[in-house]
Amino acid sequence: MVSRIIPVKTFDLVIFGGTGDLARRKILPGLFRRFLSGQMDSESRIIGVARQNLDCRAYRSVIREAILENDSGARDKIQCLEAFLTLVSYNSIDAESESGWDNMACKMRDGTIHAYYFSVGPSLFDNIAGRLHRHGLVHEDVRIVVEKPFGHDWKSACALNRTLARHFHEHQIFRIDHYLGKETVQNLMALRFGNLLFEPLWNSKYVDHIQITVAESVGVGGRGDYYDQTGAMRDMVQNHIMQLLCMIAMEPPAKYDPNSMRDEKLKVIRCLDPVTRNDLVRGQYEKSAISGGYLDEAGKSGSTTESFIALKARISNWRWAGTPIYIRTGKRLKDRASEIAVVFKQTPHSIFAAGSGRHGNILAIKLQPNEGIELEVTIKEPGPGGMRLIEVPLDMTFADALGPSDIDNPDAYERLVMDVIRGDQTLFMRGDEVEAAWEWTDKVVSEWENMNEKPLPYSSGSSGPDDSLMLMHRDGRKWREIRA
Ligand code: BG6
Q1: 161-215: pLDDT as tens digits
Q2: How far is CA 89 from the centre of its chain?
Q3: Which atom of ligand 1 lies nearest, measured to the CA of 220?
Q4: What does the pLDDT look like over 106-142, one tens digit per residue?
Q5: Distance from residue 128's CA to the centre of ligand 1 (Å)
Q6: Mean of the pLDDT values across residues 225-248?
Q7: Are 299 and 329 in contact (CB under 8 A)?
Q8: What residues line ligand 1, using a CB cutoff of 6 Å?
Q9: DSSP for 69-97?
Q10: Gap between the Cα atoms of 326 and 118, Å rounded
């Protein structure tokens, strides 16, 4: 494949939380790969900001280690890595005090794009934004990037939006949801709106139901404190899965541009019905032969936070009325596997003998780990014995079809950071979208909070609580197997 990398303009990127986990695991290794690809030029600068008293050399060494640890190919490119590190500097700032800001202001150059990445807790947003203003660091061509969690509920998300709006215009605010930066998620747009084949069938007349599975095999790891306040519904459904649902269900936008896309996504969220208690299953993983249980791993004995959730969502609009969307996500499930499956209805009439098999199609969009698209079609089972029907996948794994390429295939974060520099908000959430997503999420959460129920136990390494199977079963449907 021919590389079509378009270099971005020269930028000064400041990362608040520059020594934090996200900066070390994702942002800086991602920028290094963009540097290797030639997309980031050698005039651009990255300034890490944190409270610690580090000098530039010490910071570079932290980042060198982080890149070597998080990018398996980096060890073979040491010279390039050293060249990249010369673009990285450090500025010690306590967001809650005035010192250090003027020093940083001196490092920002005229004539470059200025981007500020708030890779810190939301409680610091106001302090940082206010001080950027006071120290003359905000102008028309500035962008800020904010991370999830964007609020804990509708009220706090609205408050955060108001805080940011006091300092920045909406077109300057880039709310990251890294799922939107995944190649396959963007491919959903190409698949739906670049082909004639699917769109006529993309409605409740032909689609029986849709399944969205985001299964993780990892547990809560060292994030017990954050996760226990959050749970699967707020950590995954309110943002990542909501975005997937919007992309799969939205009407064709007039254009692939930020506002057309976000207008259509917002309409989907606003059409979501509240989820009732019967359509909701919460689970928490228990110790098994494979790994420990949630309570021990999170260090929160007695916690009732869910590490798994399954629910049936309904979209009340002309296109989707009558087609349920089943969602499930959880930690410590049997595999890391995420997919969206569009399950089509059976043919209206069978010309084949009874018992010859099911006649239907499933379009599975595999998000990770093996990105690809699989279309299940019904064929005749080869050989004698009459007309016996079976389903076979027409399988397109991207790596097989297109060839693997580390450099040209950016991971979600690096792609999105380059979009920030370009000023392209298509793959970022708008304030009203986030608020609408919380409004629906709050209603779901209140369904179980009012009942004071504990989540159902499930074994680590399983497919989640049995009740999630029942959620489908009682509708005469079943989940597709979780398989990497
Ligand atoms: C994060 C969640 O946003 O997404 C994590 O906070 C989760 O809990 C992660 O593990 C999943 O991302 P990915 O890209 O590994 O599917």
Answers
A1: 999 999 999 999 999 999 999 988 888 999 999 999 999 999 999 999 999 999 9
A2: 29
A3: 8
A4: 999 999 999 999 999 999 999 999 999 999 999 888 9
A5: 26
A6: 97
A7: no
A8: 216, 235
A9: HH-TTGGGGHHHHHHHHTTEEEEE--TTS
A10: 34
